[in-house]
TrEMBL record:
It comes from Volvox reticuliferus. It comes from the Eukaryota. Its main location: plastid. Belongs to the ALAD family. Its EC number is 4.2.1.24. GO terms for biological process: chlorophyll biosynthetic process; protoporphyrinogen IX biosynthetic process. It is found in: Plastid, Chloroplast. InterPro entries: ALAD, ALAD_AS, Aldolase_TIM. The keyword Chloroplast applies. This is Delta-aminolevulinic acid dehydratase. Residues 42-67 are annotated as: Disordered. Catalyzes an early step in the biosynthesis of tetrapyrroles. Binds two molecules of 5-aminolevulinate per subunit, each at a distinct site, and catalyzes their condensation to form porphobilinogen. Its cofactor is Mg(2+). GO terms for cellular component: chloroplast; cytosol.
Amino acid sequence: MNATQLRGLGRAPCTGCLRRRLVICNVAEAIRPAVVSKNGNARAGVPEGTPIVTPQDLPSRPRRNRRSETFRSAIRESIVSPANFILPIFVHEEGSNNIPIASMPGIYRLAFGKNVIDYVAEARSYGVNQVVVFPKTPDHLKTPTAEEAFNPNGLSQRTIRLLKDSFPDLEVYTDVALDPYNSDGHDGIVSDAGVILNDETIEYLCRQAVSQAEAGADVVSPSDMMDGRVGAIRRALDREGFTNVSIMSYTAKYASAYYGPFRDALASAPKPGQAHRRIPPNKKTYQMDPANYREAVREAKADEAEGADIMMVKPGMPYLDVVRLLRETSPLPVAVYHVSGEYAMLKAAAERGWLNEKDAVLEAMTSFRRAGADLILTYYGIEASKWLAGEK
Ligand code: PBG
């Protein structure tokens, strides 16, 4: 509406608009005090003092599409379902009780046996039918070369068997990396000079993946970030006849501060070195630099060429740009790991009453889907599924 049209309606353009020769802004005009009714002609249904304006001449009003819950639900772009979730489970066998993890309230190391079955049965009752197994290895079984990783009767392998025997249609994922079994606390074998050996480590990762497949795993997930491990594991699985076992690769796994509570859960943090044996205090020579984006494309191309079935980004919320990047770079399904530190932050704020936990968690899950993730690994798997089912 221009000044002439406004005059035709018996209204004066505001002086600011005239002076600057702008298209008339009748909102600016309306908020001049003279137009605001302080008494008398207040309209019904709005607070006294509400300005009286002529409607804006807007061709597009996005708020029309947000008008009702029915309509919002009808046009929602990203939907979260328990079918998207992969539930991590920590397993131990130091006694028959579940052991709470201090930095992850509500999450336990589950006692091998009935407690594991009960937990997974509960998850399935809410529609979560995918789990990833993390064993807590007793210290006396840890060695610098982590042979326990491919012990056919190791805790991880027995847990996989237990789960597949109890729930044949459960999708069981595993973690492929040496850190839960390595006395140095690294994902690979550490040389005396403090180098994480790449190709030597891969030999053991292949044995680990094959032993997990023999135990019945559906998907093996290398989280170690050694170069070339996806291709080597694919060849090892195929050679042993496991052509149907999938690989979910931790494609873009960053050297993140958010894994702290997980390392508490498994007591798997890098250990202090000694005079004759330098142990790097962090995983920066194999996990990615949080500053890097393009590098994720390089990892994605390698994983795709090496035969990965699913690509993962980890951590989750601080790396949504990388989730979107992989979604647009590759046709493979994309997974995202909502990691232990992200869980801990939400729990801590919720415990203090600083966040509405349900709303904040479901918003995080929706954001993963919006960014392009198909699969979400989350310790909130059961709780979020309860909320999605309408439970309080
Ligand atoms: C082991 C592994 C880690 C996580 C998953 N697999 C820890 C690490 O890389 O140090 C972290 C998961 C989490 O923080 O929830 N390679």
